[in-house]
Amino acid sequence: MRTQRSALWRMAGFGGAALLFSILIIAVRVRWVPLESVDRGIAEELNEAVAPSDFLVTLMGGISRLGSFGVMAWLVVIGTTLVLVRKQYKLAGFLVATTVGGLILDPTLKLAVGRLRPVVEQPVAHGGGNSFPSGHSLNSLICYTALLLVFLPALRPRWRRAAVIGVGAIVLLVGFSRLALGVHFLSDVIGGWSLGIAWIGLCATAFELLRAHEGRRVTEPLEEGLEPEAADDLRPTEPHEHRSGTARALALGAVAWVFTFGALVVVGLPLARYEDGNGNILWDTTIPHWFAANRSDVLGHVSIVGSEVGNTHAILAIGLAIGAVSLAAIRRWRPVIFLLTVMFGELSLFLASAAIVDRARPDVENMDGPMPTSSFPSGHVAATILIWATAAVLVMPRTRAWWRWAFLALAVAMPAWVAVSRMYRGMHHPTDIVGSALLSALWLGAAYWLVKPNCDLAEQPCEEDAPEPVSDLEDAKAAR
What we know:
Layout: H1 2-29, H2 33-50, H3 54-65, H4 69-85, H5 89-113, H6 135-151, H7 157-180, H8 186-213, H9 221-224, H10 231-234, H11 246-273, H12 286-293, H13 297-308, H14 312-330, H15 334-357, H16 379-395, H17 404-424, H18 430-451, H19 472-479
């Protein structure tokens, strides 16, 4: 009986949100004067308060990005990947249906209503398209709530209320940031929230009806999540004991970083000083000039793709995908920690060594324009080597299937493609590629030795799972 009353209250809430949105859309369409007066007054007051402060503008911009497509899309992709690998197909369908629904509702309603963005005295941000409803407000409520409902069973009961409050705070802050930046009216934000509540409520109700049709009990989504029975599958890792050893690994990692940095500087500085960075060591002048003399439209397009697959955004996307699949399939943190160690170590080593070496780019036409960083080492090539080598290290020992060899092939082919593309476009010397290979080899070896990402496959247990050492006194007592 309590469950039925709760379900009725939820349906009433979703219906009320849908009614509020309907009223708002009519008021906006007919340009109801009281509503427009409130909207414009709040927009002007917030603009006067926020625009003069660079700190507030930066803060509001950062909060606003939490509701951007780029951030939320990756959160949903990672969440969907996790539940798919764990064979929770209905939950994956729920995530996809709710988020795709938001992506459909936002632009179509903006186009139908046709409301212009606020015009403020001191613009600090630009919003594309029409104003009503707020897409950031709508989609942040849908995506974060959908993820909450799916993964709530994985949390311990005492943390669930905090998670609900946290998600609510993020949604409220994203909506406020859109007002503070002057790209939406108050009614746009409230319209986005009300539509989001109605949509996520409809999807959650449909999920509950499906459970009831299968003869399972109806849940309390904000207390138990959508699928309480899936709690064990939704937890990121299997339970295991943790032992101390982090401090030792961090200390040794810092030593390995310093030695790798030193090796890069020792190799790079002479290259940067010899003939202003364009000496012909290992054909550093010959090869870039040959590429520049033999450029064509077709090879230019191939090189653009080859260069882009090694840029920061592509490597980040690949890394997120590898991390999500590793966590879902292996159910241990070590592979993810290994991936993070490798990639953040590479980024810091590249930036630090490039700043010290400061080698000039090849003295040929640069097809990508001026670059802010040094030519030595190539960050694109180092990142590509390490991301695909990491994938191969994690996959190869864990399966005997034929497709595992594809990862080894990618670990060889992708860096080669990126390296040739970067030299073709006049971005790097051959010895810059050598520097990237040196960085990758030293840091990958150090990270593998320190983190031991595949130790769960060995006969000896991982350090975190190893039994506590037994003292001599305890040995003697056991012998007696």
